[in-house]
Model the fold of this input.
Amino acid sequence: MDALSATTVELDLAAVPLRTVNALLQGREVAGHDALEVDTPVTLTNPRGAHAVAVGMDTPRQVTVAGHVGYYAAGMNQRADVVIEGNAGVGVAENMMSGSVLVKGNASQSAGATAHGGLLVVEGDAAARCGISMKGVDIVVGGSIGHMSAFMAQAGRLVVRGDAGEALGDSIYEARIYVRGTVASLGADCVAKEMRPEHLEELATLLKAAGFEDDDPASYTRYGSARTLYHFHVDNAAAY
Amino acid sequence: MHDDLTLARRGLRPSATFDPATIADIQRAATTGIYDIRGGGAKRALPHFDDLLFLGASMSRYPLEGYRERCGTDVTLGARNARYPLELAIPVTVAGMSFGALSGRAKEALGRGASEAGTSTTTGDGGMTPEERGQSKHLVYQYLPSRYGMNPDDLRKADAIEIVLGQGAKPGGGGMLLGQKISERVAGMRTLPQGIDQRSACRHPDWTGPDDLTIKIAELREITGWEKPIYVKVGASRPYYDVKLAVHAGADVVVVDGMQGGTAATQDVFIENVGIPTLAAIPQAVQALQELGVHRKPDGVQLIVSGGIRTGADVAKALALGADAVAIGTAALVALGDNDPRWDAEYQAIGSAAGYYDDYQDGRDPAGISTQDDELAARFDPVEGGRRLANYLRVLTMEAQTIARACGKAHVTHLEPEDLVALTVEAAAMARVPVAGTDWVPGRPGPSF
Done:
């Protein structure tokens, strides 16, 4: 098979089965289709809320999804840069390792769940459990996030330009959360912390990377672990 | 210590309700203010495989010659959707146990032993280690709620994927790894601070319920190119419904773990009081598969059963009740050298004894198996441990074959419920086989012949 050139390739999800599309994006050979170079940009049309769109990629590819997607879009992404020109369902960029995912609309629950690396930007709102069990990813949400976000968040940064729902950062480990608006309530062991110069600098870098460089980092509040629940002790039983 | 006979002669009688162990538990709780955490599975007496017997061949059945006629043991797992199903030489697999709970050398030994015997081993909470991958011909990669160490590179290296919803020791409970075992390497693999008491989630972070699971399974297939079998593991509580839902969600293999199944660290009250015995779980799981038309079919869904498998007789009984394979955990650790009498003095020194040690959460295992202490771990030889496990797996297999031949079966999976009777009413009701010497299956109407 001849590899296509680096000009953008369009794949129509209304005509090409998802299994074939994902295989091509992952660089697998598919009978009857030209293989894609590792860096060939791709536009996916007619996603129509399909699940598992553009998952498992490990190439420096630019992928644009022209529409809304269902669950787990760009799941376990490595190195690819994915733009979703619509809303995303549950678990967008779940377990992402590197690369980036930009959701132009809103994201459903568990956005960026367990992700280890890369940058997830949601320009609209993200629902409950945003950044749940995050393990190193950076997440920037243009709007607000729902309840139980950053639950058991282990590492990485979560930036929220709007408000946060109830039980933010419950049982958080070493992830850092920055919220500009109000927080409905903090979860167990999550506390507000001082914004030191390194945090202002870190936040400015994240906002710039997400395209929100006009925000004043000083208008945000930092939240993180009080580390009182790191060792199980009977005196903390009421906190669980 | 008091001698029971002496006490009885003095007219002293222990309470059945407040027996010495219960009194000790109350005293411990009052002293420490915290519940007991331990490893292992349920210790209470439960209806189990010991309560079943095989009806060997006689006038109406023809046995196979013990040392001549072939009795197959191979099993294929996950051919329903996967391009590369697992082809195992024996129907005994090694269950998931984490690096973290176990040392890297112990994980390596499990891989060595399983590979030598032609079967699979399984990762655990905490990710895949190079030692384990390197020594395991067939490695099942667990996909757990915590997603510790989960990454697509390891997912692609796996031979099968096991989505874990629960385990028999604690259906509905998450994991626990206490600070003394969170070494620098374990912490790094789990992205956690070193030395903290770590709690693994009990629910998956990005899906809830069977409909979501369908989508999650489809995603994992897309990521791995539809190459690998996908298992769903449940702790035995409502196996009839859980198995049906798992099959509907797209599982290629369902793993049902009974309450005798072990754990590295869980509250004793959880281990002893939540879940149902393995014996009770198997017929329910098999019924679910049969009603869906996927039991023992070429493109069907296979059932792996675990929780208290110790002997080839246990293996044979599980298969006769309808399992396609079994998994061993605790028994595999014993085969490696866990609770070996040669360490008895050291077990005694830490308040236990050889044959009783279950404080896997403490990380002070004298045998060097359930520890992250470098000095203790160095005591354990993974090559020797692997050889011992392979020996044990072979014995289990030969024992199961011995029974299968006696029942006239040319393959161990040809064993069937009709080959079994029960010794107790409870076991008969759970296993759905007659009480020995009768035609009575509790709960079933009328004579069967």
User: Anything to note?
Assistant: The longest helix of chain A spans residues 197-210. Chain A touches chain B at residues 18-19, 22-23, 26, 28, 51-52, 55-56, 58, 70-72, 75-76, 78, 90-91, 94-95, 97, 110, 113-114, 116, 129, 132-133, 135-136, 151-152, 154-155, 171, 173-174, 230-232, 234 (CB under 8 Å). Chain A has one domain: 48-226. The two ends of chain A are 58 Å apart (CA to CA).
